[in-house]
Amino acid sequence: MAASTLMQGKNVLYITLEMAEERIAERIDANLMNITIRDLHELPKKMFTDRLSKIQTKTNGKLIIKEYPTASAHTGHFRSLIKELALKKSFRPDVIFIDYLNICSSSRFKGNANVGSYFYIKAIAEELRGLAVENNVPIMSATQTTRGGYANSDVGLEDTSESFGLPATADLMFALISTEEMDELNQISVKQLKNRYNDPSVNQRFTIGVERSKMRLHDVDESLCVLNKPEEDTGPVFDNSASGQRIKSEKGNFSNFKM
């Protein structure tokens, strides 16, 4: 998503508290160049710079990746980073990705504060939302599911790990669902869980294709989607009831029966 936003000419700030900056950059390079991460390592320097130059001619957007140690950074650090980038590099992000919310720290509660995970994670979510409003920029992050939700093919808000305060604070929330059958077809199901901007029942569930070796997502034919296959049409509900079956046997097809 960071790569796609970048190619739309937007400035992207990617904050990681889990993986190294180099690993994140590696994934985004593979996406932009449409090659596998393995091939990226074997790409000659001249060819790499040539491809990078072609990508730069297609977008005016800039990408900055910043790494923090796990559970050591909070919105105070992110706010200072945004101000520093604006001052020193004239860089103002159009979107911020944070990888990921649960391993951030809270600026209100210290690490040894005697609070439960519900209040701690909720505080982080509220602080990030406040930072987004303050800078008028969307912030996207991630969370994990509970153990029950991990094996669930129909994840709901109740499957959010650690704190239900997180989905209570988020404006838009969706689940990425994968099963063994979908893995074989390189597919992921996306389900809207909450949407303050639109009716969540519109496009509530859809399937996308994924190329993990290239870190790319793409559209897939709906007829090939595992979780989106249309149910078999069994006719009107009344026709399938006991009364409907009786009338069918007496008068023929119920659809042709006249009162």
Descriptive report:
- The chain is built from 10 helices and 8 strands.
- By secondary structure, it is α/β, with parallel strands linked by helices.
- It folds into 2 domains: 1-145, P-loop containing nucleotide triphosphate hydrolases (Rossmann fold, 3-Layer(aba) Sandwich), CATH 3.40.50; 171-230, no CATH class.
- The chain starts with a helix and ends in an 8-residue tail after the last helix.
- The model is unreliable at 230-238 and 253-259 (pLDDT under 50).
List the helices and strands and how they pair.
Layout: H1 2-7, E1 12-16, H2 21-33, H3 37-42, H4 45-58, E2 63-67, H5 75-89, E3 95-99, H6 117-135, E4 139-140, H7 147-150, H8 165-169, E5 172-177, H9 180-184, E6 187-195, E7 205-211, E8 216-219, H10 242-251
Parallel strand pairs: 1-2, 1-3, 3-4
Antiparallel strand pairs: 5-6, 6-7, 7-8
Strand order of the largest sheet: 2-1-3-4
Low-confidence stretches: 230-238, 253-259
Q: Whole-Å distance between the termini?
A: 58 Å
Strand content: 15-25%
Helix and strand composition category? alpha/beta
The tally of helices reads 10
**What about the largest sheet?**
4 strands, parallel
Helix content: 25-40%
Named CATH architecture of the largest domain: 3-Layer(aba) Sandwich
Mean pLDDT: 86
Order of helices and strands: HEHHHEHEHEHHEHEEEH
- Based on CA atoms alone, the radius of gyration comes out at 24 Å
Approximate shape: globular
In total, the number of strands is: 8
Query: What is the name of the CATH class of the largest domain?
Result: Alpha Beta
CATH topology of the largest domain: Rossmann fold
